[in-house]
Design goal:
The protein has helices at about 20, 135-145, 180-195, 250-260, 295-305, 310-315, 385-390, 435-450, and strands at about 35-40, 90-100, 105-110, 115-120, 125-130, 150, 160-165, 170-180, 205-210, 220-225, 230, 240, 275-280, 285-290, 330-335, 340-345, 350-360, 365-375, 415-420, 420-430. It is elongated, with a radius of gyration of 26 Å. The strands form 3 sheets. A 7-stranded antiparallel β-sheet has the order 1-18-17-16-15-19-20, with helices on one face. It is built from 8 helices and 20 strands.
């Protein structure tokens, strides 16, 4: 399987404050309805998306990574090296990030010893940044950039994003609407990577997309009184709509039960540059990444309902489309032969097969590779009898790694299966586990029956 990126995107969400940005899913086959559609399609790549140039892509965990040092004023009282007799607990900095309408109030407090503590004033949660002296110096440098970039908060504006700071040793403070959006995004990212996304306390359904190679950070939540809040991290004000109703496909009690059952389950697949997502259902928050290659069958419906809350935000021109993967929602199985021919079987029994067609251009003596797409179907009742024995063989493990790997692998064939507890993947060359052979033979037969005439 030759590696070729699905698409190339270039995004530079370059933040002035890099450190603040990251200090922080058949027997009888009916082929009578087959149709042929020539399409251009590359060979199956070894990764789901193309690596992008360096951006402020967020960390895949809560741990912080080293970042370029920001400009700073070494004479500022907040970065003075403490003397042996100094009170190391003396406060030197307080940073504020607030959105009153959604009861978001987070602060960062630092003392002379370099201890940094992040506090969620709404929930009472705290997070400590170890070895924070360097970060403290960098934040101080950013604050020098803050100066003169605040606008007054309009009276009574609860949907405004308010940023501020106190420097007790210098006797300086400021608070207002920050006009530098890069710095505002950095502050939001600093808090969210350390403390998780914020949802209003009475959220019924919500969804958060973290900053990534494709998206700005954005959040939406609908509360128990029918108010829908939506906000993008770079915007100075959030939107608020009242008298909203839950989507008609919402089965809230079922969603709550599913969220509780899957709480703590690993729903993260490391697709390059994909955002980390958080699906909020009542009091449960599920962390998800690359949902098409991570989510089990039962979680697709609640995920799609919460994700729909932020879909209007994704239309913003500052975001890029997140690529689809080999196993889109609705697909139960994807299989690629060593020939490069492949087949996808969907939950309703529809089948999509793709066959490699190589053409030689005589005038230039070059070859072009195309796919011919065959659309067909099998009885939906034959899908589980095909899939269940393969999963029961213990040959194919849960979790997707090979098809999203950044490096080349030596595997020629690939199998992906979505089941009730997640997505399973198996890749091989030449030999396959005995337990998978009957199912693979059925899939090979299906591909052969659908093959277009030469």
């Amino acid at each position: 399987m030759d590696q070729k990126p699905i698409r190339h995107l270039l995004l530079t969400i370059a933040l002035s404050v890099g450190a603040m940005a990251c200090a922080g899913a058949p027997s009888s086959l009916d082929t009578a309805s087959a149709t042929i559609t020539p399409t251009e399609l590359p060979k199956l790549p070894k990764q789901t998306v193309a690596p992008l140039l360096p951006t402020n892509t967020p960390l895949t965990s809560e741990a912080a990574a080293p970042q370029p040092t920001l400009a700073n004023d070494a004479t500022s009282p907040s970065v003075i090296t403490p003397s042996p007799t100094a009170d190391l607990n003396q406060p030197v900095l307080k940073l504020f990030y607030e959105i009153p309408a959604v009861q978001l109030k987070r602060t960062l407090e630092a003392n002379l010893a370099g201890k940094l503590t992040l506090i969620d004033e709404t929930t009472g949660e705290e997070a400590t940044v170890p070895n924070g002296q360097r970060l403290l110096t960098e934040i101080n440098g950013a604050i020098q950039t803050f100066k003169g970039q605040f606008e007054p908060v309009p009276p009574g504006c609860k949907t405004c994003v308010v940023v501020g700071y106190d420097l007790p040793l210098a006797g300086e403070s400021a608070r207002g609407i920050l006009t530098n959006t890069q710095l505002q995004v950095s502050i939001q990212h600093l808090f969210s990577t350390r403390m998780g996304p914020h949802f209003p306390p009475d959220t019924v359904l919500g969804h958060h997309l973290s900053a990534s190679g494709y998206t700005l950070a954005q959040t939406a939540a609908i509360t128990s009184d029918g108010t829908l809040y939506q906000w993008i991290a770079a915007d100075p004000q959030i939107t608020q709509q009242t008298d909203q109703v839950l989507p008609t496909s919402t089965n809230l009690e079922n969603f709550k039960e599913l969220a509780q059952r899957f709480s703590g389950v690993d729903l993260v697949t490391e697709c390059t540059n994909f955002p980390i997502e958080y699906s909020r259902i009542d009091s449960e928050t599920l962390q998800i990444r690359c949902p098409e290659l991570s989510l089990p069958l039962e979680l697709i419906s609640p995920y799609e309902v919460t994700k729909a809350l932020i879909d209007p935000l994704l239309e913003d021109e500052r975001n890029f489309d997140i690529p689809s993967t080999f196993l889109p929602f609705g697909a139960r199985l994807f299989y690629e032969q060593d020939s490069g021919n492949r087949v996808t079987i969907f939950e309703d029994g529809s089948v999509e097969a793709k066959f490699i067609i190589t053409n030689t251009i005589a005038s230039t003596e070059t070859e072009t590779v195309q796919f011919e797409t065959i659309l067909s179907s099998i009885p939906a009742g034959e899908i589980d009898p095909l899939i269940i024995p393969m999963l029961a063989s213990d040959v194919i493990p849960r979790g997707v790694r090979v098809s999203v790997a950044n490096d080349q692998t030596d595997f020629d064939e690939l199998l992906l299966i979505r089941s009730i507890d997640g997505v399973y993947e198996f890749a091989w060359s030449n030999k396959v586990g005995q337990g998978l052979i009957p199912g693979i033979q059925i899939l090979d037969l299906l591909i052969e029956e659908l093959r277009p005439p030469d």
